[in-house]
Here is the input.
Amino acid sequence: MKVKVLCRNPDDYVRETTRDIQRVPRNYDPTLHPFEVPREYTRALNATKLERVFAKPFVASLDGHRDGISCIVKHSKSLSTVLSGACDGEVKVWNLPKRECMRTVQAHEGFVRGMCSRFCGTSFFTVGDDKTIKQWNMEAPGYGVREEPINTILGKAVFTGIDHHHREGTFATCGQTVDIWDEQRSSPIRSFSWGVDSFSCVRYNPVETELLASCASDRSVVLYDTRESAPLRKVIMQLRSNTLCWNPMEAYYFTCANEDYNLYTYDIRHLDVPVTVHMDHVSAVLDVDYSPTGREFVSASFDKTVRIFQKDKGHSREVYHTKRMQHVISVRWSADNKYIMSGSDEMNIRLWKANASEKLGLLSTREKAAANYNKKLMEKFQHHPQVRRIARHRHLPRDVLKQKREQREMKEARRRKEQNVRKHSKPGSVPLVTEKEKHVVAVVE
Amino acid sequence: MAKSSSLQKTTLSKGVKVTFTVAADEEELPSDDDDEEAISASEDEEGSDDERKHNKLLEAISSLGGRKRKKQSERSEASVQVSEFAVNAEGTGEKVNLSDLLGTVEKNSGTSNKTKKQLRNLQNSKETLELPLNKQQTEKIQRGIAYEKTAQEVSCWNPIIVQNRKAEQVVFPLKQEPLGPRRVEQVVAGWKVQTPLEQEIFRLLHNNSQPVVDPVLTPVEEASLKAMSLEEAKIRRAELQKARALQSYYEAKAKREKKIKSKKYHRVQKKARRKEFLKQFEDMCKTNPEVALEELKKMEMSRMTERMSLKHQNKGKWAKSKAIMAKYDESARKAMQEQLQMNKDLTQKMVVLSDDEHESKDEESETVPDFVNDPEPIIDSVNPWMKGRLTREQPEVRCVTPEEAEAAVEDNTEEELLGEFERKRRLRQADEEGSTPAEEKEHASEVVVEENEDVVEISDNEENDDKEEEEEEEEEVDVSEFNSLFKLMRSEKTQEGQEEDGEGLLDEGPIRVQNMEDLEVLGEVFEPQPTVAPSRPQTAVAEAASAPTKKRNMEIDLREVLTKEAKVINVPFFPTVVEDEHDEQISIIKEAFAGDDVISDFMKDKRKQEAAARPKVVDLTLPGWGEWGGVGLKPSRWKRRRFRVKMAPPPPRQDQKLPDVIISEKRNASLAPHQVSHLPFPFENTAQFESCIRTPIGPTWNTQNVVKKMTKPKVVTTMGAIIEPMVKEDFIKSRTTTPAAKGPAIMFSGDKGARRGAKRPSERNQRRSQKRRK
Here is the structure.
């Protein structure tokens, strides 16, 4: 008698090694998996909730400074090194993974106004209230050797900012004028001034390396080209800009942090209207830094919060704050796009995750796949009210919240008034001015 | 002589120098003596203070000057005063005029006429030069130019930025080292020759002009690359490959066919070839008759040979043997017959039709009498289009019969009445079908109001006219019946409502007053006696139509106008007599709603919606569960009864008591907070958005690869890698290629000797640029 039995190929169901996952044959027939939209919706909702649950952005706090932190600088070649300058003239070099201070230098008398690291990462420059530019070695001196700068340049006036060229041995400082210096010389090789007596910030464009931009006290942002003899153009806004940052991936965009609580992204080819106005802060914005991918930027504000904006969105996607963090003076996005450093008035440097709910460290393939899937789901269902409500919910300190409400009310009142004025005046006599146009006073050629 | 002139020159130059350096003082001095001046100038420069020395010097100078002055007074040669450049050197204090300089130019034949002309013009022009712009303005201009330049330069990033934004995935850091093993040449690039052996090897390599460093191709390879681009080469190679393959196929086929021994096969083959040939021949006759003629000759030849030879005539040995067999063998007989047939075929003379014949035939075929194509004689002379075609189309009401049947099931008076109307309408339509041609004809002139006697009636067909009138009357009856029905429904409802309300003084009814019609209806409800129509001025047509009906029912309202059949579609060709604005309005509405049976459509709609909202019976029977199942077997009655779940009836519809309102109940209050209220930004229409939502992306519905592709993140970063800003050289090549393009231009400007030397680097540049472009 012949007996027929079911037989299967063991290759189809036997694992190669015991560490392999069990092979599960699947039937993708859509009739067997009904309700795909509701199921995915539920998944998206769950993913959103979990994202909020796991949103724990605070990583570490680096303490050791004895005064407010005025500037933070990333090491250009090492991810784990960060430098910070304080208001008492002290500069500290930090090791991030160890979360400890490696070296302390009394660099200046008075504030350390600005710092920058050389593109090769072997030395860094500081400027301070004592009218000096100092170049320091990145390596700590040997035991028993005094900390001394490699180079000291005594200037005529206080320098308020410094930035190094991204490929050559020149750097730019600002103070009463914007000066371009050669590292080998003790006097500026070029200095730009355009009817302004003080500048607060100067930044080299990381892509078009000969371009410069600076924020001046006459509420303007001035553009320069080091190859030209004169500045290029300036745009005057309603209030002063504190700092600015160039987009490292999009050569002609920069964002400036303004005193009027907003940030403005400009295209240097069309300065008359900002590309985007980023609103959400409730006090003056003090510092801004782009993520190295150029997709987002982080801003520090006097309202004791740090916010993360997408480069083309008007409102922030994230807000970071702690109870103890005071006015945030400086902020930097780490070069691997993973962390954010913020230095604040209460002498601490805080390390945050750039994505609040991201799992740090190595991920297994399945974890990665799950994370990607969840992210995609959230993106797909982001317009659904429940998902959006959860995803957008943030806790804010009470005074910030109050101020926010107040400002919303004020804005509404202003809008209403304008509307009424328009209603009661001759048609066409009160023109409609868009939010973007409101903030630019003039573009000076 | 030469010496003196050189001296003159020096003094001149010094004099000029003086005028520049110490301008004011020197001008006052008597300027006859050049030397004195010159030295005083030098002295000035030195700035001596010692008085004694100064005196001594003065003495010396005076003595010098004296001598010279003497000399000057003596000599009066032109050559002294006029230097070879025709510049008078005598008074250095005087300004050098343009005319002085021009003297030589005029004389010199070397200078071109153009420059001479320009110079002369310059001399003649008396205008003063304009003042240069002030500093602010020049700076502004400079800034403007610089800004423009920079803006343009920066714009070159535009495509890259756009591309990066559109990219589905961007991996940072942007410039990544390619994975996998590198080429030896790249590894070796940084390495230098040290030992003598290595040197020897390198020398050998150099002798063979084997490139060691960056361009890894030999000159021969590069030359070949230059000769043909990669794409071209690929295309050519593909062509060659194809040709080779085809050839080999053909060869193989030929070989295979050659091996076939079957006679039948070959016979068939031959026949096919012949057929093919004949076809070709026909073509050939048309295209090139010469070749055809030759072929024809060949055929003639073969015919001749056939006639001469005894082949195929059943005279051969084989034929004889076959003839013996033919008596018994069918196939042998057949073969012999075939032979004979072949003979016949071959010996038959080719009959070619003469051209004339063909033509005549063609003509015949072409000259079909005209009346064939003519349309049929029009019987109905007025409207040829409406020859019963259109009217024969079934009205849409016909095809709704199943619905009607369904409606009949429901025990509803309304429906019954409606059904009746339907029947009537159909009857009427049938009538119309019969009389349409006449009717249509009528339409052309039917705008005319019939009541008004002064209108000229074009239609002479009295019967038709009468018929039409009758029809209209009937129709009006229908409409009025309909209206009365509605009113009846309403009155019932309102009565009910009143009963429920009791004796309410205010007219708070369940009927929602929503529009003008409703308002009218309300009025009607409370004034039940037949009054004059609310819309007083109406078309004469309507009035005329309604005149007879008034006897039965004295009501006309807007709805009637809507439901009226489209009789008056045509635009009036001559002015209508009674013209009111309102009339026009109504006629327009009539035209717009011509042919629509609005109310029944509405009723149908409502019924449909009600039916859709009614809960359906859910069948949960599982065939084969607890009993036998299979093809042709039904689940038992018990089971069907047990597992068919009747759902609870929904809450009553909001428009249940409103016969002429549909209130949609699609909105689900419990679902609403989960639904998107408006179309989000990047989507252009709801369909797009819905399709996006409907497509699942999870692994439950998609295969692994698809999921991977669909869920890939937009930005990928490597852990622990520093993301550097973009570097211009990596992304924008145009700049790097420009020097290569410049190469030849420099070459041409240089002298011929240098050209050879210059050639190499430029070539190298080109090569490099070419490589980059790839």
